[in-house]
Amino acid sequence: MNKSNIFTPAENINSMVSTPKSLLDFMAMNTSQKCIFAIADGTSGVRNTIYINKGKMRMESVIKTSGSADQNVHMITDGSDAYTWIDGFPTGFKMSLDKFKQQLPTDSQYQVGDINQKFDYKCESWAVDKSAFAVPTAIKFTSPGM
Q1: Tens-place pLDDT, residues 64-116
Q2: Where are the domains of the chain?
Q3: Which among 78, 85, 143 has a CA at the least distance from the CA of 112?
């Protein structure tokens, strides 16, 4: 997965189709797309790259804050479960998509934010890489008690 600097994106996102979408919208899609959203104020920002294929989704988020190392947050959904983890940590969270959709919209503990909030993503079709949807085996996933 490409982990380019959010302030100098490697892709030319200006040529991509603009569409307002939320994480919940992406989870419901059954197409193959790559979508990018980036927002920055010059010293901090976030860049999401989302890959979608036949009901599966992978989100790569780079969070940049002034004076801190970039934080890379990942999420994979496989149609029934959502897996989230942060680079540099040996554990992540696994949650059923139903529970995720019901209980996560306002809970910032899991680093995904409001899953209903729409952002202006730039989208294009992509040559599907099925390995993008493989849950990493080096991460131990736990189910949070909710």
Answers
A1: 888 888 899 999 999 899 999 999 999 999 998 888 767 654 444 444 456 77
A2: 16-124
A3: 85
